[in-house]
Amino acid sequence: MTNETMTTDRVPVDVAVGVLVKRDADGREGDFLLTSRPEGKVYAGYWEYPGGKLEAGESVEQALRRELQEELGITIGAAHPWKVEVMDYPHARVRLHFCKVYDWQGEFEMREAQQMAWQGLPVTVRPVLPGTIPVLDWFAAERGFQGATHRG
């Protein structure tokens, strides 16, 4: 069995991902939030969009609401389903359910000792988690951005 076969045979873990986006006065999308992966987790220090695994019986929005409260201390408004991407990592295959979030309440608290950064294109934080890169490309396409979306 090849590595490729082993990778694609793994059952993906469903993960809800929050793409928190600020809007300007005209409603246009602006900066988005990235957080670093905390120490002790796989890919510690890499930058990603916040979120986490769905628990049994949870919808994507329910999981996202719970995860952002647990990790960041905020309560989100509506989660707008955006895109789904499957990523193969050495440790797991994950199905990432990306939702845009425009409204939230509360002060950001980094409850897992992670960092946060509001970013535009190109992002300046690094390294960027591989599962984050497609989202940067989607933003680039939506916004007509040309060039590298992140630093290597």
UniProtKB/TrEMBL annotation:
Matches recorded under PROSITE patterns: NUDIX, NUDIX_BOX
Record-annotated Nudix hydrolase domain positions: 12-141
Xref: Gene3D superfamilies: Nucleoside Triphosphate Pyrophosphohydrolase
E.C. designation(s): 3.6.1.55
InterPro entries, A to Z: MutT-like (IPR047127), Nudix_hydrolase (IPR020476), NUDIX_hydrolase-like_dom_sf (IPR015797), NUDIX_hydrolase_CS (IPR020084), NUDIX_hydrolase_dom (IPR000086)
Reactions it catalyzes: 8-oxo-GTP + H2O = 8-oxo-GMP + diphosphate + H(+); 8-oxo-dGTP + H2O = 8-oxo-dGMP + diphosphate + H(+)
SUPFAM superfamilies: Nudix
Keyword Cell inner membrane in record: no
Keyword check for Membrane: no
Pfam families hit by this protein: NUDIX
Keywords: DNA damage, DNA repair, DNA replication, Hydrolase, Magnesium, Metal-binding, Mutator protein
Cofactor field: Mg(2+)
Similarity annotation: Belongs to the Nudix hydrolase family.
Protein name (database record): 8-oxo-dGTP diphosphatase
